[in-house]
Amino acid sequence: MIKFRQSFRFRIIALTIVVSGTVLLAFSAVSRYTFHRILVGAVDQNLSALPFPDFPHPYHAQSWEWFANATSRVSSRMFQGGVHIVAYGADGKEYFKSEYWPEGLSVKSLPLAKGEIAMPEMPEVITGEFRKPGPGGNPRGRGRERREQMQIASFLVSRMSEEGEVRFGVFEHGGYNVALGVELRGISQEVSHVMNAFRTSLPVAIAVLAIGAWLIASRAIKPIRKLTATAESMSAAKLGERIVQGNEDKEFSELINVFNGMLERLERSFLQATRFSADAAHELKTPLTILQGHLESALQEAPDDSDQQRKLAMLLGETQRLRGITRRLLLLAQADAGQLKVRGESTKIGELIHELVEDFEMQSSDCEFRMAVDESVTAVVDRSLVTQIVQNLLSNAVKYNAEDEPWVEVSCEDSAETLSVEVSNGGPGIPEEYQERLFGRFMRVDSARNRSVDGFGLGLNLSREFARVQGGELELVESAPGKTRFRLTLPKAV
Predict the structure, then answer these.
(1) Which domains does the chain carry?
(2) What is the pTM of this model?
(3) pLDDT digits (tens, 9 = 90+) for 12-29
(4) How far apart (Å, rounded) are the C-alpha atoms in residues 79 and 116?
(5) What gap in Å lies between CA 381 and CA 392, rounded to an integer?
(6) Beta bridge partners of 493
(7) What is the pLDDT of residues 142-162, one digit of tens each?
(8) Run of H or E including 410
């Protein structure tokens, strides 16, 4: 999950889904409201102007029964829901209310009438033809006849009943109102059907958007993958590589140009530094050799146990020290430039380790050496480089060991494809703040920064380069008070 969170492509897809989903949900809400208003507007258009010549008087019950039946026939063609009629007075008194009036809907919630009802001169029974309205809600007809046969609503209001929303057109008359209500359950169901269809298609739309975002993001980060692949394969020997440009967008094309320019500057600077190190080490070899020869001759001619002899011996030691530094710098310059040659040859690693340990046993008689190495272990490696690595590890183990009971342990593990050599020693261990920088050049811990402990701070760095040039690795496995352990891992064939 953390990997996905850190993925730029995943963030693009997630943001696309969130934004698109939000937009679609907002669109569905707006569409639902708009569609509902359009359908209700069509009902309002028919409710606002009815093709009736007149409404019966509130006291003519027989006329209201006939009017309700006639209205139901006309309304079935005009509306899609049930129709309800009520005639009521200023105090909410009901003079007529159609059958199947919606439960929970009070007539008093409708706009109340104004004034008083005039008494009818004679009871009348309204008869006549109710015409279907034409465009705009007007009945088919012409001129004044059409206007005289229209009943215009004074109010259009919605009220809720237990069955759902009811839309009323309220027609005002002297002292009483007539309300014609249409149930909107059909409209609500139609809107629900549309929204259900939208909700069903929403996951498909989001899936299509996610796939599209994936393809777009993959194409967008293609140049970044080129940069990543080039950076991962970059090494001192491959600084001459460049990213080949294709049909990338302008922004990525500029990024590739900047990256290639950076590689070019790095290559130029690295070559200059490597050339300087190699040239300096090479040029110092001859004068140091001459200086060492003259010092050795002068040392032989100086009187024994004289101050002159002691000074010449000190100068000779420093000269040999400088020669050692220049020799290692030259090897490091060759390793940096990828010019360090590896000569693979079948080598008995176990036998080689035994020989090196025997040499150190003779030099360090007070140190206990323990070995768990099979002399028959063989591998195809560069014998010279492996010898220098193991010598450096043994030398460090002896130098930085415990003072009272020093010990060194060497072990070797052999597998089908690799072999590993571990060198352990006692002592105070390496402080944690130095462990990460231990393989740096000229790196020495504070306890070793004195002339009593010989060394230049280049041994471990050079040994790691020797291991890596053969496809192996040199690492510090553990270091604590009482034990420090290094491990050399090499392929059995280089």
Answers:
(1) 1-117+124-220 (no CATH), 250-336 (1.10.287.130), 345-491 (3.30.565.10)
(2) 0.46
(3) 888 888 888 888 889 888
(4) 32
(5) 17
(6) 380
(7) 444 444 567 788 889 999 988
(8) strand 407-414
